[in-house]
Amino acid sequence: MFPIPRPKLIANTYAFESEPMVKPTGFREYDARWLFGTELNLMGVQALGMGLGTLLGQLGIRREIVTGHDFRSYSASIKMALVTGLMAAGCRVHDIGLAVTPMAYFAQFELDVPACAMVTASHNENGWTGVKMGANRPLTFGPDEMGRLKEIVLSAAFDLCGGGSYVFVADLAERYMRDLTDRPKITRPLKVVAACGNGTAGAFAPQVLEAIGCEVVPLDTELDHSFPRYNPNPEDLKMLHAIRDAVLEHGADVGLGFDGDGDRCGVIDDTGDEIFADKVGVMLARDLSALYPQATFVVDVKSTGLYMTDPVLKANGATTDYWKTGHSYIKRRVNELGAVAGFEKSGHYFFNAPIGRGYDDGLVSAIAIIDMLDRNPTRRMSDLKGAIAKTWSSPTMSPHCADEVKYDVARRVVARFEAMRAAGEPVAGQPITDLVTVNGVRVTTADGTWGLVRASSNKPELVVVVESPVSEARMHEIFRAVDAVLRENPEVGAYNQSL
Known about the structure:
The protein is an alpha/beta fold.
């Protein structure tokens, strides 16, 4: 009988090598993330595999699954521990090897396999690991599936029916890239900086962009799991500034930055300005709504308010649905509504057919951006950006807050803003005109300036975003007001980056 996982074990001890360790908070809203060695050990990963195989059986899903791993020093060993657990629970495992996360999603379709389990810490710093899982392509797990998986694993309620098997799929990367590039080349000459932060996407992004006709300037595309320059995260200002410098040095038309597991894409325009992903989404929505009249788009609550006010989207009959932040939530909503696309401020984009298959893929997003430029041969990226209304918006800012308390803190913040609204108390000097509480709280004042606070779905942090259509000064004012409410809670720590 496999032991019940322990929440904490000490490394370099008999117990650490003899018992599974799985910290309960590693089961997030829609995927799993742990600090490897301090919150999870290899036997804990085996338990996760056993639990996932068991869950597939309970869901009535064929016990057959795709798995792959990102480029970190420990990811391959974690994947193989996961594989042993999956096989013990009767799964036929299709191992696609080193991969970006969208390759695992693609493999579900290409190999006709119902489930996936991709070992990745995404953009998290080294030391983190995790698994993105799904069993109903193109969707990934949500809170219901994650809650049930957590119960199975932590109670060791495994159905170890045996009979599992393993096959290595040697050519999946080539099939994936061929699928992306089997299309006409662009007609406009475009010089593109492809920045990968030494993460997994470096093995694939330059080749794909060259194959569709771009002149590619590679930036930090050599795989190096120490991430020597910065974390591969296109919301990180260090990465964005490095892309800016390369765009200006090489006179590039656009800079594209991919995160550690290749499912997100960040953008720098030809002048070196970063365009936050929600604004790029507005530009893409304008472009796509001209091709698909009456289009529906889904965006997360961290995103700009321009989707509701943009005159081009209104003229094209487009509608926008604001939904919960998180790749699994937006992906599911795009699927439910049959939306043309979904956009997250983090850079996760979701395109339904004929552009994509509904899942988030940084390279599909990059190609959509390139195609937008190709359809506008007389306009540069900065022109397309300049055509949308000016707003002043922050990057995503994350103050530390322990996993054990972050949701309670977020609830307190929601309640505080609700009480302020009920009492007619102003925020940043203006009355509250709207509160959206579908995911944390988004508080909007009379001049359209707004701030958002929510609990991070994958790290011990809160998430803060602010925007003003009025001025940079108003953006700073709403940030100070939101931060003042946060500071009423002593559990809230320092920001990872701030205004």
